[in-house]
């Protein structure tokens, strides 16, 4: 995804979500498609398991986060 893309990441085990902005690439490992910051991972209870199944929804591109949909 291009830098500056806003994405809603939803942990599929508990349905918690967080909106993040793409600001880095990789690291790429196996079938993983995204890495979150420790803060974003904590908000969706992903820190302890480390890797979870997640839904990524592209919300838009820009300086400010898009309005909630």
Written description of the protein model:
It contains 1 helix and 3 strands. The protein has 69 residues and is mainly β. Strands 2-1-3 form a 3-stranded antiparallel beta sheet. The longest helix has 6 residues, at 38-43. It is globular.
Characteristics:
69 residues, globular
Describe the structure concisely.
The protein is mainly beta. The chain is 9% helix and 29% strand.
Structural class: mainly beta
Model regions low in confidence, pLDDT < 50 over at least 5 residues: none
Reading the helices and strands in chain order gives EEHE
Q: What can be said about the biggest beta sheet?
A: 3 strands, antiparallel
The oligomeric state is: single chain
SS elements, strand count: 3
- Cα distance spanning the termini: 20 Å
Dominant shape:
globular
- The Cα radius of gyration reads 12 Å
The percentage of residues in β strands lies in 25-35%
Q: Helix amount, in percent? A: under 10%
Mean pLDDT: 89
Give the strand order, joined by hyphens, for the main sheet: 2-1-3
If helices are DSSP runs of H or I spanning 4 or more residues, what is the number of helices? 1
Strands, helices and their partners?
Elements: E1 5-11, E2 17-21, H1 38-43, E3 54-61
Antiparallel strand pairs: 1-2, 1-3
């Amino acid at each position: 995804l291009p830098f500056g893309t806003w994405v809603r990441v939803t942990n599929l085990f508990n349905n918690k979500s967080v909106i993040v902005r793409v600001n880095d690439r990789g690291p790429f490992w196996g079938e993983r498609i995204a890495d979150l910051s420790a803060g974003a991972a904590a908000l969706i209870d992903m820190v302890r398991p480390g890797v979870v199944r997640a839904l990524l929804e592209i919300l838009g591109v820009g300086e400010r986060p898009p309005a909630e949909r």
